UniProtKB/TrEMBL annotation:
Reactions listed under catalytic activity: a 2-methoxy-6-(all-trans-polyprenyl)benzene-1,4-diol + S-adenosyl-L-methionine = a 5-methoxy-2-methyl-3-(all-trans-polyprenyl)benzene-1,4-diol + S-adenosyl-L-homocysteine + H(+)
Binding site for S-adenosyl-L-methionine: T66, D92, N122, A123
EC number: 2.1.1.201
Organism: Dimargaris cristalligena
Locations listed in the record: Mitochondrion inner membrane
Principal subcellular localization: mitochondrion
InterPro entries named among the record's database cross-references: SAM-dependent_MTases_sf (IPR029063), UbiE/COQ5_MeTrFase (IPR004033), UbiE/COQ5_MeTrFase_CS (IPR023576)
GO MF, one annotated term: 2-methoxy-6-polyprenyl-1,4-benzoquinol methyltransferase activity
Gene of this entry: COQ5
Subunit structure: Component of a multi-subunit COQ enzyme complex, composed of at least COQ3, COQ4, COQ5, COQ6, COQ7 and COQ9. Interacts with PYURF; the interaction is direct, stabilizes COQ5 protein and associates PYURF with COQ enzyme complex.
Entry protein name: 2-methoxy-6-polyprenyl-1,4-benzoquinol methylase, mitochondrial
Pfam hit, one: Ubie_methyltran
Amino acid sequence: THFGFRDVPEMDKERMVGQVFSNVASKYDVMNDAMSAGVHRLWKDTFIRRLAPPPGTKLLDVAGGTGDIALRFLNYCDQVHRDHTAQVHLVDINPDMVEVGRQRFKNTAFDLRSQVSLEVGNAENLANIPSESMDAYTIAFGIRNCTHVDRVVQEAYRVLKPGGRFMCLEFSHVDNPLISQFYDLYSFQVIPALGQLIAADRDSYQYLVESIRKFPTQDQFAQIIRNSGFYTVGQGYENLTFGVAAIHSGYKL
Ligand code: SAM
């Protein structure tokens, strides 16, 4: 991880992101808890509750990493509907992250395990996923890392069945000036320091903070989603924790 993250040419972004997540794969879950004081768990729980998958849902979880969303989805189906016919296919560009996910699913109950499949692949080109084959598409804390956000959303549109739902959970932009000051201090001082302390990797977490700032605002991203053909309800998003994160959603009609 001894290269600079500033002013990286676009074509190198994919390789760099790969490097970031290989560096952090084994520490990834610990770091999430440390950086967000566990709040990412609540955001992810809310995300799945908003998705509210009915029995038998076929979900594609893109940039699924170590399986937080996939696992919550299956637990929701199990606990709310006693449904073991739901399926989730996890795609992530980084083999190390997918491997951590695979190991994690090995340790879950058999019926959950049999409902999951995992694949190394790119959100911008889901070559192995047939068009109109999925009921729902989720991407959590992943789209920000992709080079072409619009291509990711267009691929989501392609693979969803008519009536299918696109849902994205991502860091976003704080809407409150007072909170915003604390948030800036936290992101630019505390997070890189935690990265150094826990993962011995300040650069990767510096990158993370910068990538959050560069990502489109809630309204801009909602417009990208509509431009790809999705129908959005209301403004198309819901802020979590003053906009530190946001859930965007759209329907393929
Ligand atoms: N969704 C998981 C979660 O919420 O815990 C993982 C989120 S993690 C912050 C971001 C993930 O995006 C990493 O596992 C990374 O490998 C993956 N990723 C980055 N660029 C990608 C791309 N172009 N296609 C697929 N996955 C990608």
